[in-house]
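As the next step, I needed to go through one protein, both as residues and as discrete backbone shape codes, included below for the reader:
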Amino acid sequence: MLRLAIATLATAALAVAEGFTFTIGNPVASQDFHFKAAVFVFRTEGCPGSMKPQLSATAEGIVNGERRSVTLKVMPASKPGVYGIYQSWPAQGHWVVGLKGTCGNSSAGAVVPVGPKGFIRESSKFFSRPATESEIESSLRELGQAGKQ
């Protein structure tokens, strides 16, 4: 029994040592039928099973030159640690999704640009903390410039 407790604590310590992070993927990656209409899914990594991460998401955009912000609902999948993001922001304009999360004393953040064909993996940015306002603004500018080309 003592060995099991030590092994469990060691596993939890290793997971926290690796850091709390997000990974993103296509909705089909979740293997959850309910997420087929999601814009993208994401997985939390480095949060021990005994701890539940605190997550939030916001769509940040520019529509007709005006800055907009829409609070999003983070939808849990049937698999632990997997979540989906659905589009509840206007179709017009340029948008990025900001993800924020904490697990114990660890934090994670991401800025995920969304284009007309869905999320843009290669332009996504991941952090060991919540993204700053300037990082979100920078991603919005890059997305706006790419849309003009």
In short: The mean pLDDT is 86. The radius of gyration is 17 Å. Helices lie at 2-18, 133-148.
